[in-house]
Amino acid sequence: MALKILAESMVMAFRSLIANKMRSVLTTLGIVIGVMTVVGLISVILGLNNYVANLLSSMGSNTFFVQKIDHNITSEEQFHAQERRPDLKLEYMDAIRKNCPHVEFVAARDMRSKKLSYGNKTTNYVFVIGTNEEIQNMDEMVVQNGRFITNTDEVATSYTCVLGYDTTDLLFGNADPIGQRIKVDDVPFTVVGTIGKLGSVFGINRDNSVYIPLTTFEKLYGLSHHFTMVVKPYGDGSPEPAVEEVRALLRRLRGLKADEEDNFSINTQQAMLALFHNLTGAIFAVMLGVGGISLVVGGVGIMNIMLVSVTERTREIGIRKALGAKRRDILFQFLVEALVLSLIGGILGVGLGVLIVKLISINLKVPAAAPAWVIILGVVFSGLVGVAFGLYPSNKAARMHPIEALRYE
Amino acid sequence: MTVSKKEPLIALDKLCKTYDMGKAQQVMALVDVTLDVYPGEYIAIMGPSGSGKSTLMNMLGCLDTPSCGNYYFKGQDISEATEDELAHIRNIDIGFVFQTYNLLARSSALSNVELPLIYSGVSREERKQRAQEVLDSVGMGNRANHKPNELSGGERQRAAIARALINRPAIILADEPTGNLDSKTGAEILSIFDALNKNGNTIIVVTHDRDIANYTKRRILLHDGRVQSDEAIKNRRLAN
To answer: How far A395 CA sits from the closest chain B CA (Å)?
Structure first.
């Protein structure tokens, strides 16, 4: 019988809400916004976390990075202070290869933005990336035509280059670029190869690029603070032994005393992932807080409107009681109304949240989708808010004395 | 109704009701009321404003409990019944008809009439069917799907009467049932009451109008909360 009354109450609740469409919509707004925000942002953050994890692991899960400037600096003063550190040197790479038995490969990258030209075609600014042969072990680059940079190119500081996918397309179209001479910032280079499509990372197009030997890069432009050594330890275990070998070596090479801190930065993927998680975790927490507050606001809105509704329907409550409605019948009736209101808000919020996630996913090119548990939690929580905040007004209605209620104008 | 003719449906024994108006001020709305109501009776409760007739009706209708004395309903003392117990009695044994109809404005006549059955736990199909039947019986069969604001005063009161009848109650309590109607429509309503009473329904009408009282069979006159007189009507009128 309770189920029957539930069904009846839901029908009555819907009728009541439809009778006051505008008011119902405005009342649920708080819940809709709260749920929408939380669902949307949790999903995006989860998607981001997954994306970054996948990205990092594509380079080999225990690969670590050596740079001049720390990844996790937060202020301009810190940046300028660290910029003044002595630059990392190309010689470190050979030193690492010779002195660190746990290290399998050492690759390196640095980059600047320059314009390229071929004949009468000029590109806009593309990434000029100085790198070495080993980078192919760490990145998903696939050579499509010709070859990549080799050790020989490095030793000879040759003016050879490898073109990225979009750059090849722009300068050569369908023609064969191998052996052709292009100008990188007005300096002539010979094309020895092209690589396949890499796609975008966080909106940065990796196919707008040209790769030249690192030694040539250093000769032309010098090393920037972007210079990064990408170190791959042997095997799949923890990077820590290799990290400590490299750290000790660099400290020695840079003349650091035992009590001085590192004047360079070694970042393992765990550390980077942890940093990323911290960041997103902080956003996550703030978002949950905002969402929670929105839900409370939404709940207060529901309580407010239900109080008004109960007062407006005092006569009706008196009539129902005269006809035999018990306290719990009236309580139930209004509680179900509050529940329906909040559930509708929750479902709408979830719907909008899923939509927002799709939009963000498409526009920012970050793969994100609302997981099922977030959707379910969103709906459940809004239901709970509805019941919690609807209890007081419903109780008020249930306790009305039928005689006084019937006299109400 | 399983009450024998010898036993009263309702027995009030030295009933009183006092209201607390705060600061040791008490209003004695009913004092020492003793009367019996037998099945099949047609009673008018009369009295001027403040005589306690509304309070008496609330007592009879189980909307309130007495301050002292006893209320026997169908032989059971319900003077100290709980709210839920009173609600149950109201649901199955009391049919209210109000001066202002008191229909739910957002529901059709049919939905209004079936309302008591919802609280009785009757199934949907049975509710609809019984509601239609009882609306037919008061001549509102073809207006069942109209909302109150689409009905005339007389039609609304008919719907209210149908609602009062649907659970086959022991008594029908009407509070100035023709108060908001013109004399012609009022007469129609009273003829319905006539027919209901002929059918065996026990009807109690609260009114200040002597003309209305003349349609009933017994008149109880209240004054200052007490029963001043309680006598059968001679030469009662019959509605058309």
So the answer is: 15
